[in-house]
Design a protein that fits this description.
Blueprint (H helix, E strand, L loop, with lengths): L1 E6 L1 H4 L3 E6 L7 E7 L6 H20 L8 E7 L4 H15 L3 E4 L3 H14 L3 E3 L14 E3 L4 H14 L4 E7 L2 H17 L2 E8 L7 H9 L5 E5 L4 H11 L6 E3 L6 H7 L7 E4 L15 H15 L5 H20 L4 H9 L4 E2 L4 E2 L15 E6 L2 E4 L6
Parallel strand pairs: 3-4, 3-5, 5-6, 6-7, 8-9, 8-10, 10-11
Antiparallel strand pairs: 1-2, 12-15, 13-14, 15-16
Amino acid sequence: MIRKNLSVAAALGVGLAIALAAGSASAQVKLGAVLSTSGPASFLGDPEKRTLDIYVQDINANGGINGQKLQLVIYDDGGDANAARTFATRLVEEDKVFAMVGGTTTGTTLAMMPVFEDAQIPFISLAGGIQIVEPVHKWVFKTPHTDTMACEKIFADLKRRNLTTVALISGTEAFGKSMRDQCIAVAPRAGISIADVENYGPADSDVTPQLTKIKSLAGVQAVINTGFGQGPAIVTRNYRQLDIAYPLYESHGVASKQYISLAGPAADGVRLPAAALLVADKLAESDKQKPVVVSYEKTFEAKTGQSVSTFGGHAYDGLMILIEATKRAGSFDKAKVRDEIEKTKGYVGTGGIVNMSPTNHLGLDLSAFRMLEIKNGDWTLVPDSNS
């Protein structure tokens, strides 16, 4: 693997940007990625990077795609949207990639989308916000479940528990705000009342005042936290310190063992919607996803020594959807590859079974989400909630 270290601290203030090239130096086909491998979203970006590294190396070791090996070029945006846009422009103008798999966060993805749309280069995002695919943008796709789907899955679980009045506490970053807004929009038709909405910033180290206010309100039966990064772990710890009795739900933005580690014993009892990947060994043998998620889990853990997260799984799905589309296209022609991505049908991935179309650049339905509960520091499936 060729590695080029590029310092962008002076220009961008985001620390070190790393470009990694997988494959031989003479490779003619470049695949781009801009990921948040440092900064507040690094627990998402790091497994994404590791996944792309592992599987591009594997693809090249087995002869490449359409007779050519891939050269993987990855830049670290540090979670900074301006840096992400700069690196997207570099991938287009200097690296001349044929496609892009990346965009760790909603904010960085939204910053990069116009670059790849204008250049007419297929872009498969790894971020959660629904704005990435609604409305549909011709050259943009994504693999993670949307924040709207997360709200719907949580609300369905609340209704099964006869809980109908909730409070929201929201991170102020792009994903947190987006999921907050989606939950507010979806709540009326789901039969859920929202009693209060509180917010916290990415640098906040304590959210006790916001949670104290929620605790004082009459009628609240559950709390939903929309956010990712370290914020949800702080919310969870403060929640238990205040001895709030009703259930706490987190977003799929915490679907990593790192969240459990940061939150500690306070995480026990928390519920969240997540991909089947987190409970690979607990799936029924008849589950179509089981062979895929078990294989990815074994490969990732053997290569990295780390536990899997859904975020690495998103990168795996994005890469494999792209590779299969490129094979069907029979070339690296950008327009043909784009068309074939849009025709993806029946792809069984770590996030679910994907069926895309000209009006659906995600291709997942609500059945792709599993409702999980953390017990004794591990993921468990919530009975009767995953139909």
